[in-house]
């Protein structure tokens, strides 16, 4: 399973997402939207306007979602 966390600097919900993923031992890649303009434009075109945006197995969600993170650990 590939997990990508699109984040921005000083983002409290992003940090909470990292911690939850780390606690469950899930591997993930971080894309800093302040440095990756193409990724930012892609997410904006999909309608996302807040960070983090998490992509896992083709699905996207936004914000800190412990329920979705726990579901990833079960999968």
UniProtKB/TrEMBL annotation:
Record bears the keyword Disulfide bond: yes
Coiled coil ranges: none
GO biological process: cell redox homeostasis
Stretches assigned to the Glutaredoxin domain: 3-61
InterPro entries for the chain: GlrX_NrdH, Glutaredoxin, Grx-like_ET, Thioredoxin-like_sf
Pfam families: Glutaredoxin
An MF annotation (GO) of this entry: electron transfer activity
Keywords annotated in UniProt: Disulfide bond, Electron transport, Redox-active center, Transport
Keyword Nucleotide-binding: no
Entry-linked NCBIfam families: GlrX_NrdH
Stated family: Belongs to the glutaredoxin family.
PANTHER family documented for this protein: GLUTAREDOXIN, GLUTAREDOXIN-LIKE PROTEIN NRDH
Function, as annotated: Electron transport system for the ribonucleotide reductase system NrdEF.
Protein name: Glutaredoxin-like protein NrdH
Source species: Micropruina glycogenica
């Amino acid at each position: 399973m590939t997990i990508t966390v699109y984040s921005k600097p000083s983002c409290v919900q992003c940090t909470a997402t990292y911690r939850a993923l780390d606690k469950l031992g899930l591997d993930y890649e971080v894309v800093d939207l302040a440095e990756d303009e193409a990724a930012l434009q892609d997410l904006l075109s999909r309608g996302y306007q807040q960070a983090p945006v998490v992509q896992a197995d083709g699905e996207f969600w936004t914000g800190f979602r412990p329920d979705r993170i726990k579901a990833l650990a079960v999968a």
